[in-house]
Specification:
2 helices, single chain, 0% strand
């Protein structure tokens, strides 16, 4: 911003010592330093506020762009559906035909139980011999 070199600072310092005097020079330099700090602080605050305003403007612009992009497909769909808006809702426009109504299946008829077969009674099985009963003798 200011292009001040060492030679210019030396000239300013000599003039300040002559005009202000060596006794009051530290007080004046301190006051100048405080003022410079306040000026820098104000400039920093202003820059921060300006940046915030620019960010808000960018965010609003980006929001508008996103809304525009999001609304385009919606508008295209609405435009494509518009000719069908006045149709009778009972008309099938899908081309799939009417949806069949499921008919309940008839209940199966009960199957009668088969009658018991009267077959010949088998012979009674032989009963095992008890212990202690007479055993047949085998010829040796």
């Amino acid at each position: 911003m200011f292009d001040i070199g060492w030679s210019e600072l030396l000239i300013i310092g000599v003039v300040a010592v002559v005009v202000i005097g060596p006794k009051d020079l530290p007080k004046v330099m301190r006051a100048i330093g405080i003022w410079a700090g306040k000026a820098r602080s104000l400039a920093r605050d202003f820059q921060g506020q300006w940046d915030e305003v620019m960010r808000q403007a960018e965010l609003e612009e980006m929001k508008k762009q996103v809304e525009k992009i999001a609304s385009e497909p919606k508008q295209q769909i609405e435009k494509a559906i518009e000719p069908f808006a006045n149709l009778d809702p009972k008309i099938d426009i899908t081309g799939l035909g009417p949806t069949p109504v499921p008919v309940p299946a008839p209940a199966p008829e009960p199957v009668p139980e088969p009658a018991p077969v009267a077959a010949a009674t088998p012979a009674t099985p032989p009963t095992p011999t008890q212990e202690g009963a007479a055993k047949p003798q085998v010829a040796s």
